[in-house]
Amino acid sequence: MTASYDLVVVGAGPGGIAAAVTAGERGLHVALLDDNHLPGGQIWRGLHAASAASHPHGETFLHWTARLRGTGCTLLAGWRVVAAPAPQCLRIERDGECRDIPYRRLILATGARERFLPFPGWTLPGVTGVGGMQALVKAGIDLRGRTIVIAGTGPLLLAIASGLARCGARIAAICEQAPLARLLAFGLSLGAFPGKIVEAARYRSSIAQVPFHTACWVRHAEGAGRLQRVTLTSGRRQWTVDCDWLACGFHLVPNIELPRLLGCTLSEGYVAVDAFRQSSVGGVACIGELTGIGGMEKAILEGEIAGLAAAGHDAEARVRSSRLVRFERFARNLERTFRLRNELLDLARPDTIVCRCEDILYAQVAQCGSWREAKLHTRCGMGACQGRICGAAAESLFGWQVSGDRPPLFPSAVSTLAAAPQVTEHGNVSP
Amino acid sequence: MHNQRVNALTNARPAHPTDSSPALPSLVSIAINGLAFQVVEGTSVAAAMLAAGEACRLSVSGEPRLPLCGMGICMECRATVNGIPHRLTCQVLCAAGMQVTTE
User: Fold this and answer.
1) Residues with Cβ < 8 Å from B90, sequence gap 6 or more?
2) Across the interface, which of A48, A132, A133 has its CB nearest the CB of B17?
3) Which residues lie closer than 8 Å to A198 by C-beta, 6 or more apart?
4) Pair B77, A125: CB distance under 8 Å
5) CB B83: neighbour CB atoms within 10 A?
6) Is the ipTM of this complex over 0.85?
7) Which residues of B touch A356 (CB under 8 A)?
8) Residue A70 distance to chain B (closest CA, Å)
9) What pLDDT does B22 receive?
10) Distance of CA A368 to the CA centre of its chain
């Protein structure tokens, strides 16, 4: 088989861009693919030359996007990987149109999504994720004068609260489920990352008047047809806050479906990789949140390492690889700091929906003994999102191992599923 | 009422990384369930539907749903765009003349 690209990078966030740029600048013929219409991933979503000046990551964004433009990488925007119909070949789809894209090497940088936990009222219109709320604001929602409660866990809460306040939203409360002592220990552990401390302090001071509750979480959300109020609790105390929106998410989980489909070995929920970020599958590297939730800087460094390795520059890759240690420590600290408290696993009532695609209730899922049994007997996880939301919840709620990815990874046109692998000498993908 | 909706939509901020000048945002007209709206170029269909007060879809048991993840994972934002069903409206930008209908 003749590969039309030396390297295909899946995911155009900071890590994927760094990988494509690093390999492209060293002469590789690279395609960078993303299901969004613009590169940047979640963290750089909506940034542009004018807005970057006032953004904490603006300089980094401008640096990498300028280099990306200079490399001549093929940018496949709006395309989504649905299957791997043959070795070293991905099937991608956009607007019902299907292509097969052969590659010599692959770097997966598919990032992470928020973890959601079911609680009474979480399906009401007006309840979104924390990152979800920010993405919607960047997509054009006007929140001026709206009252928002931000809840869940993770470093995103503060960053996004600050961003939403800047857009004119009234933040009624920030509720972080982790206890204060753990957050303080995390703060102390950031000694190696003074930039992150400054960033957090800047976010906090920008919304200094907003109550920041630790060891606090949403008990339930209510409203007639739409969210009107949320009940918060710190275990001992319970109170109700009127609001227009609740942004609630519980840190992040990696988008591990594609590496799992390709057969990459996992370790504790992440892809197991070596010093050059190579997975157990030959020619397939995984970077960024796939190897441990650690944020933008870790992803960019891993992207450079994997890009260098793909281009055969092992010595350079090794030098950069030695810098990974402190980022890996940071990732472990994040995991420890924002681990879920047990009370969160008891929020759902028997009639609370767990699987939003198929409207499967907690009582139905709780009767099952495994993820597989839940899928077969209740259709939990068998809907359009294919368990991406309820599967991560089930892992937390029931301690189940969620596995068994089969193509298509996303709902696809029948013609996409039925097509025989089509691989031509020069490839057949047009951007 | 219609004017208020239009205002809400036109206040939306553009999200266009290639723009270097903060010039006045240009507007595009779309139809949501047959009603015409003007939105700022660069607004996602999901954001336009939210501003218009429309649920994206009804769930299997008939609940109205709005986007949860905002990034093409949760599939709650599915709607019919220009006759194509189940489009992820979080990832589709409004374009002039676009017809959006809910299920």
Assistant:
1) A135, A136, A139, B44, B45, B46, B67, B69, B70, B71, B72, B77
2) A48
3) none
4) no
5) 8
6) yes
7) 59, 65, 68, 74, 76
8) 15
9) 52
10) 28
Two tokens, residue A167? 């857009």
Nearest chain A Cα distance for residue B25, angstroms: 12
Q: Report long-range pairs for A295-299 (Cβ below 8 Å, ≥24 apart).
A: A295/A43, A295/A155, A295/A330, A295/A334, A296/A14, A296/A15, A296/A43, A296/A57, A296/A60, A297/A327, A298/A324, A298/A327, A298/A328, A298/A330, A298/A331, A299/A13, A299/A14, A299/A15, A299/A18, A299/A109
- Tally the C-alpha atoms within 13 A of residue A233's C-alpha that lie toward its C-beta: 13
Tell me A184's DSSP state. H
In this structure, which amino acid lies at residue B24? L
Q: CA of A298 to nearest chain B CA: how many angstroms apart? A: 21
First and final CA of chain A: distance in angstroms? 21
Range A173-194 burial, b when 16+ CB lie within 10 A, else e: bbbbbbeeebbeebeebbeebe
CB A271 within 8 A of CB A286: yes
Q: Which two tokens stand for residue A169?
A: 């939203």
DSSP label of A207:
T
Is residue B36 less than 8 Å (CB to CB) from chain A?
no
Task: Dig out the tokens for A216 from the structure.
Answer: 């606090």
CA distance A241 to A231: 6
**What average pLDDT does the structure give for chain A?**
93
The whole model's pTM is what?
A: 0.92
Q: Which of B59, B66, B80 to mutate to test the interface with A (most CBs of A within 10 A)?
A: B66
Q: Which residue on chain A is closest to B66 by alpha carbon?
A: A125
Task: Give the pLDDT of residue B48.
Answer: 96
- Residue B11 is predicted with a pLDDT of 42
DSSP element (H, E) containing A374:
helix A371-378
Cα→Cα distances A249→A104, A191, A214, A386, B76, Å = 37, 27, 15, 19, 16
Which of B9, B44, B71 is closest, CB to CB, to A113? B71
Q: CA-CA distances (angstroms) from residue A55 to A13, A45, A369, B60?
A: 16, 12, 47, 41
Distance CA A51, CA A40 (A): 14
Output the CA torsion sign for A209, A213, A217, A223.
negative
Residue of A34, A80, A95, A142 to mutate, interface with B, max B Cβ within 10 Å: A142
Of B8, B13, B91, the CB nearest to A35: B91
Most A CBs within 10 Å, among B75, B81, B84, B88, to test the A interface: B75
Chain A: closest CA distance from residue B47 (Å): 5
pLDDT, tens digit, 9 for 90 and up, residues A212-258: 999 999 999 999 999 999 999 999 999 999 999 999 999 999 999 99
